[in-house]
């Protein structure tokens, strides 16, 4: 059995925006992640520094991000006045660079 590394990085996205503004902001942030654009601010993702590091490593190792889910606390907790954004991504080896 060949073991492959698993790296987990956790970060919220936007913080305490109204629901519609958070949705728009988090969609833009998710698009930047999908494009491997490693210039996220801490307003876009409170853990912007580790996320940017992951995006740099993903680009270097030819990993492609896949958006698994995008939501905010208004989708689950009910209060839509001040929500926190969340997304989950998987980074997979680019088929053109697979061994």
How would you sum up this structure, described in words?
A 3-stranded antiparallel beta sheet has the order 1-3-2. It has helices at 19-34, 48-60; strands at residues 15-17, 63-72, 83-93. It contains 2 helices and 3 strands, in the order E-H-H-E-E. The chain is α+β, with helices and mostly antiparallel strands and 99 residues long. Helices cover 29% and strands 24% of the residues. The chain has one domain (15-93). The protein is elongated, with a radius of gyration of 15 Å. The model has no long low-confidence stretch (mean pLDDT 92).
Question: What layout of secondary structure does this protein have?
Answer:
Elements: E1 15-17, H1 19-34, H2 48-60, E2 63-72, E3 83-93
Strand order of the largest sheet: 1-3-2
Kindly report how far apart the N and C termini lie: 16 Å
Report on the biggest sheet.
3 strands, antiparallel
Q: Structural class, please? A: alpha+beta
Strand percentage lies at 15-25%
Poorly predicted residue ranges: none
Q: Give the overall average pLDDT.
A: 92
How many E strands? 3
H-E string:
EHHEE
* Multimeric status of the protein: single chain
Pfam families: Memo
Organism: Sulfuriferula nivalis
Protein name: AmmeMemoRadiSam system protein B
